[in-house]
Structure formats: C-alpha cells, structure tokens
User: What shape does this take?
Amino acid sequence: MHKVVLACSLLVAFPCLAQMENISYESTEVAPGFYMTVGNNPDGPFGGGTSGFIVTDDYVALVDDGLAQPAPAMVAHIKEVAGKAPDFLVNTHYHGDHTGANALFAEEGTIVFAHHALRKRLLEKPESAGGDGGIPVVTFAEGVTFHMNDVEAEVIHLPEAHTDGDAIVVAKKANVIFAGDIVFNGVFPFIDLDGGGSVDGFIAAQKKIAEIADENTDIIPGHGELASLESMHKNIAMLVEGQKRVKKLVEAGMSEDEAVAANPLADFAGTFDWYFINAERMTRTFYKDLTGK
Assistant: This one.
C-alpha cells in the first residue's frame, strides 16, 4: 500500500488551499472491484480527503470525491480506472474536501446521495459541492442499500459523530468499509463541533465500525493510511483515554488554556500529531466538547 497523503478540513482557512490545481489522483485496489483513492499534491501536503469506489459489471459507485479546484482531474481519474463515470455518489459528510467535485460528477450523470443533514448544510454553502449542481438529489435518514450485480453496499448513518450528517458504506461480502472522516487513521481527528459532531458520538461511531469489522476488514478512512480492526482499537483507545484526562482537568476547575498548559496528551503527541491537528488542538476539542464553550 502506498503512503496516503494526510489532509485537512475545508472548514478552516489553510494556506495549502491556494495550491490545489495540480493535484493528481491515485487509486489502489484493496479488494476485487474496491478502490481507495488519494490526491497527491506536488505543491504541498494537502491533497484533499480520501475517497473510494466500487466497480461491478454494470455499475460504478463512488464514495466521496475531492476538492472543487482539481475536480476535472478527479473525474478523469475515476472514469479512466472504472471505465466510466460513476452511476452513484455517496457523500459521507459535508466538508468540501470530500464533496467539492459533486457538481462535475453530476454533469456526467452521477446521482448524488447523502444524509438529510448533509444536504441541508450544502444548501447553505453550495460552493463546497462545486456549486448548486452538486447538491445531493437523493437523501436518507437512517440509510440506504445499493444492490449492484453481486455487490450489496449498505449506507449507514452514524449520528453526531464527525458531523451531524455522517454515513459509512459497508460491503460485507467484500469485507470493506468506507468510513469517511469518522476515521482519521493513526492521527488526531478533526471533530466538527460546530457542524453537529461530538466526541462521544465520534467514539460511538468508531466503536460501531469496529463492531462491524473483523481482523481481515479493509477500512478506507477519510484521512490516513488504510485502516484495520487493530488500528481502529488504537484510535479508539486514544480518544477514550484523552477525553478522560481532559475531563479530570475540567472537573478540577481549569480554564481551557490551563488545561492546554497541563499537556494531558503529551504521550500521544509523538504518534498522533500531524500538521493540522496536534495535541494542543485535540485538547481544546475535548475541552470545548465537555464544557460546551
């Protein structure tokens, strides 16, 4: 497996966002007909979110796409590898590094599916979907199932996790899970508290994925390397312990800055720090979630 480029959320202004036009895409087949796709950016570390797709005899289904700026390259890549434009596209959440090519895929005839809450957020900010044409046209509450030749792919809504409109896609026969940003594998995650996410919901969603998976499951994350059940347990353990530590500081009456100064996640930093979320920012996320401030 090639090294996956780590990525950031488009909700936050980021210097790398000005250098997106040169992104190219690379796909790896993790199981027969199941692909993981990452963006490679020669101008910086951010290549957009990880996506993936399924190819059967008659259908192509894409799970997430990429940024709006390099959308033509994303569309061309998927068509080249899959043999045609996707019939279906499932957005796992509303962030623009996973939805920015929606409009261009829609022009190719792709039908975009998403949770109700996700569609509502893209209606408020259609540029994250590449424009009005990228707004999902089919929405669901709890989920939907795709029956594509011999592939059955179940879309499952997981509430108040990374955002309020998250979904995962589970193909049990192939033993592949497309996790979206519920999985930042091996790094501190971005939990979008302003977008309806929560630490408890994020942990619960990760535990749900671990419950579905077995030791041979390929878990395609929103960011990071291809995940497994073993790596999911490590991600969950860090979050559970980190939340517990920060909760003690909150209960001790510390302010947010005092909690950060106490450096409760110091021993996790060497493993989980990355350029977008470090131990300080993760501590602040725990604190804000616990206090509502």
